[in-house]
Amino acid sequence: MSIGEAACVSVHGANRLGSNSLIDLVVFGRAAGLRCAELIHAGESQPELPADAGERALSRLDRFRNAKGCTPTAELRLKMQRVMQSNCAVFRTGEVLQEGHQLIHEVWRGVDDIAVTDRSLIWNSDLVETLELDNLMAQAVVTMDSALNRTESRGAHAREDFPDRDDQEWMKHTLAWLDDKKREVRIDYRPVHSFTLSNDIAYIEPKARVY
Known about the structure:
alpha/beta, about 45% helix, 6 strands, two-stranded parallel ribbon
């Protein structure tokens, strides 16, 4: 189970302002707690973990700790930041996003040539920054590809070549899967639920954003 922003329950849709996550935490934190109370019983036996439990996380740690490429983490991070600032700002066009797609995938492939000089396991800031870059890179790639694919404007996604919201085609959540080995992104969708889980409040229809 997950709560807060990690749960992606989209309480506020595309609107992301400060403190919005409090509702995610309070409402769905309570729901998760109540569900846990139903599922977990004191003294109950639990299934044994697989023999390779945790292996994926440890292998990722060792892969970056022993990385012997030629590109420093800071250099690759700067390239990623510049691509996202130039090609995935709030106001975008298909042409700019298409260029950004090519550039960010090129930067993503550069992770294979990353260089980590500190092999220690104590206070290794070089390793921590590399692991953080790997997390950021995944977010950058799916953000760019999802924005390129969504030919409408919605919330903070403002396409100057598609200035209007298109509920008929794009009233759906974008899902993305990354393949680290092939350096590819697969995009799919799931529907937006136009109902509530309570009879106490009616579903609120989306409205046009105006200023």
